[in-house]
Amino acid sequence: MRTEIDQRSVPPARVHPRVSVIIPTYRHQNKIIDTLESVFRQTFQDFEVIVVNDGSPDETAQLLAPLAASGRIRYVEQSNKGQAAARNRGLAEALGDFIAFLDDDDLWPDDKLEWQVSYLEKNPSVAAVGGGCELINDSVAAGEDVFLYEGVVTAETVSCGNPFRSPGQTLIRTQVLREIGGFNTSLWGADDMDLWFRIALRAKMVALRQTALRYRIHEQNASRDVIRMHLNLCRMIHSHLRLVPAEIRDAMRKNYYVWLYNYLGPSKVWHAIKHGSEPFQERDSIKNKLNVTLVMTSLITAPTLGWLFARGIITGKVRKLLRRLKWYDRAQQ
User: Fold this and answer.
1) Which of 59-63, 122-126, 302-306 has the lowest mean pLDDT?
2) d(Cα 111, Cα 129) in Å, to the nearest integer?
């Protein structure tokens, strides 16, 4: 666990930076220093760093205090409102022409900003550029490179799946982000995918086959709030379908629901319905009538998806029954 940064390796703060690096942080005091070091090692140095502490209950504030006092980072603190709200707070504070988001447990390759800034400067018609990611673990061991998509990212592209694992893979023009209002804070777990869709409707976004992020895989990546995720993805899909022309709406609906099934899967959804009621309070509760309506509507509007869910649940029930019968037979012997 790193607890401090060698101040000699940190670039001076910029008055008018080209890039604003925005890092929301929550409960990652053991990772944030490594994340910041990957930013300070960038070969492109015309940037500011804005760290938004989203009400983290650990020692993050004390850990970052020396960097904030020296002006190496701009430190902002708020009560816990979620990652999307923290990113929006950073966007409101940003002075740069481009925005680069980075999660507080991920790392950047040294040339990430250099090649992305160069691309946007050479292509003024492009609003955002993204790259692939390298999967790493807590020991920062190198893993496989992942490129979910390559080419121009359109609204139809997004309906087939999220083109990026994390916003940390992208560089976005500040003006475009502010014009579309930043992240939708009501779409927990789906706010980044929603952002790509809204950018694609307004401007050109490109994904290139070049590594832009070292994405850390750990237990917290896999959210246990599967039902909450499903409900917010349904809300996102419904809002997106209202924004596209009627002639492509049916095709996009099909794309979305096939992707939704592949992404969550019937076994995960069924397990969450049965065992995961405690995290789902108030408007995210499975007992909420609106939530039940959303789930049922998503199945009805996509019959193939509905059948896949039903088949998965029925298969799971049959397997459980067979396991019980085998246990009963053994107990009688």
Assistant:
1) 302-306
2) 14
- End-to-end CA gap in the chain: 54
Q: Which of 247, 246, 263, 333 is nearest to 298 (CA)?
A: 263
Res 279 pLDDT > 50:
no
Question: Where exactly are the structural domains of the chain?
Answer: 7-221, 226-332
CA-CA distance, 292 to 127, in Å (whole number)?
38
Tens of pLDDT, residues 282-302 = 444 444 554 455 555 555 555
- For domain 7-221, give the CATH number: 3.90.550.10
**CA atoms of 185 and 81, how far apart (whole Å):** 9
**With 70 as the cut, is the pLDDT of residue 329 above it?**
no
Is there a contact between 188 and 140 (Cβ–Cβ < 8 Å)?
no
pTM of the model: 0.79
Q: Reduce the DSSP state of residue 254 to 3 states and report it.
A: helix
Whole-angstrom Cα distance, residue 92 to residue 96?
Answer: 11
Q: Which residue has the tokens 């001076």?
A: 12
